[in-house]
Amino acid sequence: MQQQKPQNQKNANLMSPEHHKQKMDDLRMTLGFGQGANTANKIDNNLLTFHEKVDSLLEEEDELRLKHVEYVREAAKLLN
Q1: What contacts 52, CB < 8 A, 6 or more positions away?
Q2: How far apart (Å, rounded) are the C-alpha atoms in residues 28 and 22?
Q3: 21-30 contact pairs (CB < 8 A, 24+)
Q4: Does the structure show a pLDDT above 60 at 17?
Q5: By C-alpha distance, which of 20, 18, 19, 12 is closest to 56?
Q6: What is the rounded CA–CA span in Å between residue 62 and residue 55?
Q7: Cα(37)–Cα(59) distance, rounded to whole angstroms?
Q8: What pLDDT, in 10s, does the model give residues 60-78?
Q9: Using one digit for the tens of pLDDT, what is the confidence trace for 22-74?
Q10: What global pTM score does this model have?
Q11: Which residues have C-beta within 8 Å of that of residue 58, sequence separation ≥ 6?
């Protein structure tokens, strides 16, 4: 019989809100945001928005993948 992971371990690879905020703050700093309007190499705000949306989509994808794996495991149990 297969052992199941506890519920809290199953979502371990999903990003916590604190981790997400820290990641976005690091990205803003890397891209030059918050250094004033006179920064010559300031990156367009669209790039930051793009990164935020991609990050959100990747997180949704992880959640859907976890749900899919859970459903497949349930179906496998029913077949056995």
Answers
A1: 24
A2: 10
A3: 23/55, 24/48, 24/51, 24/52, 24/55, 27/51
A4: yes
A5: 20
A6: 11
A7: 32
A8: 999 999 999 999 999 999 9
A9: 888 887 777 776 565 555 445 667 788 888 899 899 999 999 999 999 999 99
A10: 0.57
A11: none
Residues 35, 77: Cα–Cα separation, whole Å: 56
Length of the chain: 80
Task: Please tell me the distance from the alpha carbon of residue 75 to that of residue 32, in angstroms, as a whole number.
Answer: 49
Q: Cα separation of 60 and 44, whole Å?
A: 25
Q: Which amino acid would we find at residue 8?
A: N
Tokens 């990156």 locate to 43
Place of tokens 């019989």: 1
